[in-house]
Task: inverse folding
């Protein structure tokens, strides 16, 4: 039985953690755009997390996750040196990488993390990479340094204007699309579904190809359960084996967002039960950000 | 049995029924439905076997268990010996005794049934096999399973830990090869743990069988999806001499009717996986896996999986669980026993109807299914009468959960990554029906990835024949 030892697990933004895990095979085989299924312990859910980075020499992968429910909260409490439980992957189809010309990577919130390996891969394929990092407010902008290393240019955008440009990622993207001197050949958008939908709607009239990376509810992640299904171009597709990346212009985002709500009430019950027992420890962990 | 019975005396004994949980009680718990035979009941049932000379039952068994041989031992009270005899050709008797379609296999050809001209009168081979396996598990004999095997130094990889993979692993380990099973999920057993519900196959029985394989030297690596985590070529590069692919069922089919992406619509795979593998039965009590517990649950389909889903719905608290099937009861592919159990528990069968639309409220939650009545027409290619829609017969059946149990396609993960393995029109792997050899040298395949939706025992038969062929290949080097 392989063990997935945690090298580090630290907060990098409010409620957002970065975990480095020993997973030599995954580190060696993963490609940009792929994900893993994490199952921290028996009784917990199996959740898909996109691989934010990997070091094949050290045999580690990096996962960036936001505490949104019981499973991610439990992950936040795991100490360095501990065991992550079950990690299966790399799963999903890798990003289609080639020299497109100019690629804009739009990352919203923790969507920046999965954008990172894609920006890296697009850059190594010879593309000019412009990354737009968006968040509600300054301290929620993550991985700016890493994204600068992987991109030719980085534009930060915050809803409240506390950092970078004030507004939405679509405002910054629109300016790029409208610039006749530097055509955009591809947009890769990863973030909350509403953001991916808005980006896809924005690029559609420009005829700019737009990839989005979907993160739907999954169980096995290997093409068995069908829970992750989404309608793309009028056809049922499975995010785990047909995706996670799809042509944003074909995705039925409204249907997907509706299905994402299926378990909201139950998830709340699980999370509340967890907080009742471990809420103080979780707050303590989240507060480490300020001290660190 | 002290005195020898005459055939006439044997034929006069009626089949011994297996005691079961009361239907109205069991529909609300996940414990196993039948209680099993007592030793006395098993010996009485065993004495019904005529020990006939032509033994048609052995030929009816996909893994050719010596059925009269083990039944004779049971009639003498030699239960552990009976178990040992079964295990010579069947490494999962406790599983097969529960889930094999005996009425279509060994029991279908039983001489006792023929003498009575009544299939229901056959020797209850499945129940006896189950009794023997359970007895042997609960009353182990010292030294049991300590078969000294000379290591061959050859390595075999098995992809998938379902019934096909487990059977092949057992046979290959017994032949002295170093066997490693790669499983994509976190738990071992494939469909035996994620698909077949606890009330039909308790999970501790599967665990016991898997532990037995581990004791016999089989390595099990979980969380590895071959084709993604590593490739078939990587396995050869790691020193494996032969590979058996038994990855099982793939992407669930949906009906492609409007409303199928509404909230509350499941594939049977997802519904059963949530309930079984992820313990949604115990949500809030050690499990975080939610599952929608509708008051009225409608399941599409007429196979064993549909029965499992409909019966699981009752156990998750549904007031009403309804099967919608487009043909009549006579054409239903599910085992008679499963249909019978479902009926006893109160599952409602709405036959000769087909769903044409799933209706949802404004927020997207399922509120019902629009069904259309069907009539039976001329036989189609499957030989069954084709269901023909009756125009204007549509009506809405209110419900809040819909489960689609109409079958699976092939899983694309391994085959997409391994172009050297030939696949058929539907993406299933093409394998020799006798040996299980694929188009790629050193690679065998069996079970649902080859057959599409089949049964546990057919997958086991494939595993057994592939193991034989692998042994031969490793001995001779001839592909």
Result:
């Amino acid at each position: 039985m392989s063990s997935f030892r945690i090298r580090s697990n630290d907060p990098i933004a409010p409620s957002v953690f970065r975990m480095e895990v020993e997973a030599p095979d995954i580190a060696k085989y993963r490609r940009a755009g792929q994900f893993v299924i994490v199952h921290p312990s028996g009784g917990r859910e199996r959740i898909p997390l996109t691989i934010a980075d990997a070091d094949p020499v050290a045999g580690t992968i990096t996962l960036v996750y936001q505490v949104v429910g019981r499973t991610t909260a439990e992950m936040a409490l795991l100490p360095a040196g501990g065991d992550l439980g079950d990690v299966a992957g790399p799963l999903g189809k890798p990003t289609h990488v080639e020299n497109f010309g100019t690629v804009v990577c739009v990352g919203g919130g923790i969507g920046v993390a999965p954008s990172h390996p894609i920006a890296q891969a697009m850059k190594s394929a010879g593309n000019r990479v412009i990354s737009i990092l968006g968040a509600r407010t300054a301290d929620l902008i993550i991985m700016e340094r890493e994204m600068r290393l992987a991109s030719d240019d980085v534009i930060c955008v915050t809803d409240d204007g506390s950092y970078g440009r004030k507004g939405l990622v679509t405002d910054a993207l629109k300016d790029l699309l409208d610039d006749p001197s530097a055509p955009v050949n591809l947009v890769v958008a990863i973030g909350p579904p509403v953001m991916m939908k808005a980006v896809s709607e924005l690029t559609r009239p420009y005829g700019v190809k737009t990839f989005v990376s979907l993160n739907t509810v999954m169980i096995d992640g290997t093409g068995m359960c069908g829970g992750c299904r989404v309608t793309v171009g009028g056809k049922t597709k499975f995010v785990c084996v047909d995706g996670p990346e799809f042509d944003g212009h074909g995705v039925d985002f409204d249907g997907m967002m509706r299905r994402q709500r299926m378990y909201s009430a139950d998830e709340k019950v699980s999370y509340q039960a967890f907080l009742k027992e471990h809420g103080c420890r979780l707050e303590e962990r989240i507060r480490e950000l300020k001290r660190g | 049995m002290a005195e020898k019975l005459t055939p006439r005396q044997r034929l006069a004994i009626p089949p011994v029924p297996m005691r079961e949980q009361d239907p109205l009680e069991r529909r609300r718990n996940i414990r196993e439905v039948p209680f099993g035979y007592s030793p006395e009941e098993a010996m009485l049932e065993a004495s019904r076997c005529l020990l006939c000379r032509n033994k048609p039952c052995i030929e009816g068994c996909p893994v050719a268990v010596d059925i009269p041989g083990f039944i004779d031992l049971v009639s003498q009270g030699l239960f552990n010996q009976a178990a040992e005899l079964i295990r010579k050709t069947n490494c999962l008797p406790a599983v097969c005794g529960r889930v094999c379609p005996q009425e279509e296999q060994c029991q279908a050809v039983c001489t006792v049934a023929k003498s009575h001209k009544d299939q229901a009168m056959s020797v209850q081979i499945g129940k006896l096999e189950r009794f023997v396996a359970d007895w042997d598990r609960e009353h182990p004999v010292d030294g049991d399973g300590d078969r000294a095997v000379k290591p061959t130094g050859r390595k075999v990889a098995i992809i998938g830990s379902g019934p096909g993979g487990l059977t092949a692993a057992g046979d290959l380990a017994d032949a002295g090869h170093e066997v490693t099973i790669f499983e994509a999920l976190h738990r071992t057993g494939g469909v035996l743990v994620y698909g077949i519900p606890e009330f039909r196959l308790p999970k501790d029985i599967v665990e016991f069988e898997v532990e037995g394989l581990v004791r016999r030297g089989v390595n099990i690596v979980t969380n590895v999806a071959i084709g993604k985590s590593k490739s078939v070529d990587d396995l050869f590069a790691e020193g494996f001499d032969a590979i058996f692919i038994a990855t099982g069922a793939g992407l669930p089919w949906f009906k492609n009717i409007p409303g199928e992406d509404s909230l509350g619509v499941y594939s049977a795979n997802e519904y059963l996986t949530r309930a079984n593998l992820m313990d949604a039965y115990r949500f809030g009590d050690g499990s975080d896996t939610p599952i929608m517990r509708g008051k009225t649950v409608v399941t599409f389909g007429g196979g064993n999986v549909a029965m499992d889903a409909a019966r699981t719905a009752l156990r998750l608290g549904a007031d009403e669980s309804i099967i919608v099937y487009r043909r009549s009861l006579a054409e239903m592919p599910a085992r008679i026993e499963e249909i019978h159990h479902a009926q006893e528990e109160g599952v409602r069968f709405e036959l000769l109807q087909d769903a044409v639309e799933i209706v949802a409220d404004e927020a997207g939650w399922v509120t019902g299914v629009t069904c259309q009545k069907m009539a039976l027409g001329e036989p189609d290619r499957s030989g069954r009468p084709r269901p023909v829609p009756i125009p204007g017969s549509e009506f809405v059946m209110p419900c809040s959960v819909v489960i689609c149990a109409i079958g699976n396609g092939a899983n694309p993960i391994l085959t997409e990554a391994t172009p050297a393995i030939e696949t058929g029109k539907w993406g299933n792997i093409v394998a020799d029906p006798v040996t299980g050899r694929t188009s790629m040298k050193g690679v065998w395949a069996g079970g649902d990835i080859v057959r599409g939706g089949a049964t546990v025992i057919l997958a086991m038969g494939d595993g057994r024949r592939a193991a034989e062929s692998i042994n031969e290949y490793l001995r001779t080097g001839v592909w």
About this structure: DSSP finds nine helices and 15 strands in chain A. Chain A has two domains: 6-91+264-291, 102-260. The first helix of chain A runs from residue 24 to 29.
